């Protein structure tokens, strides 16, 4: 089956950086529209696709896909032969979906609250409960290695590898031995290096 025509609203200094890496890992071609965060108004094309004006926003044959977890899952399943998305019935499938969902539902909210010095609130109302527990889960996950789910590199690593790079760079998360080793392995991947070089060229031509 032919892959859909893809267009990504993108800024390398945003959450969409990992999507660019995933596209490189999958060998999928896409059109990139650079979203200028310094522009006084959001791109009309972006707002038409996603009224929230957020990136990443993906259009696949005219169908809009937003939200990081949905985009990573959608793209990885376009190229099952790449092996970046465990298929239904595979033992790793549950852990894969959990790692994707945990990022958006627990980890990122916890890190944002931590950055803004906000209390998590009542446990019953908080999406994650306790920042320390979230960070401990992450460290224990990476201690198994070499990748987020163990021996197999998946789309999960494109999400977490990119996010942890930003989090440690800005001091929101301590670059422990487990996290540092993981980020070094991630940065050494050819697809990651290609994506980052392409993003640097995109910014240079802005």
UniProtKB/TrEMBL annotation:
Classification via SUPFAM superfamilies: GST C-terminal domain-like (SSF47616), Thioredoxin-like (SSF52833)
Coiled-coil residue windows: none
Pfam families assigned: GST_C, GST_N
Top-rank lineage group of the source organism: Bacteria
All copies of domain GST N-terminal, residue ranges: 3-83
Record-stated family: Belongs to the GST superfamily.
Name of the protein: Glutathione S-transferase family protein
Organism: Rheinheimera tilapiae
Lineage: Bacteria, Pseudomonadati, Pseudomonadota, Gammaproteobacteria, Chromatiales
């Amino acid at each position: 089956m032919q892959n859909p025509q893809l267009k990504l609203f993108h800024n390398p200094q945003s959450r969409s950086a990992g999507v660019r890496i995933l596209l490189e890992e999958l060998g999928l071609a896409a059109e990139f529209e650079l979203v200028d965060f310094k522009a006084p108004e959001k791109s009309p094309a972006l707002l038409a696709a996603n009224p929230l004006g957020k990136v990443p926003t993906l259009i696949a044959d005219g169908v809009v896909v937003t939200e990081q977890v949905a985009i990573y899952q959608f793209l990885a399943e376009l190229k099952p032969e790449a092996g970046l998305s465990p298929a239904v019935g595979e033992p790793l499938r549950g852990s894969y979906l959990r790692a994707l969902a945990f990022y958006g539902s627990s980890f990122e909210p916890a890190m944002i609250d931590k950055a803004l010095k906000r209390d998590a609130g009542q446990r019953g109302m908080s999406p994650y409960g306790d920042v320390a527990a979230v960070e401990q889960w992450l460290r224990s996950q990476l201690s198994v290695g070499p990748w987020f789910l163990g021996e197999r590199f998946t789309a999960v690593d494109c999400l977490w590898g990119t996010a942890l790079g930003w989090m440690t760079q800005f001091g929101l998360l301590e670059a422990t031995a487990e996290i540092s080793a993981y980020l070094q392995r991630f940065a050494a991947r050819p697809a990651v290096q290609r994506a980052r070089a392409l993003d640097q060229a995109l910014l240079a031509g802005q």
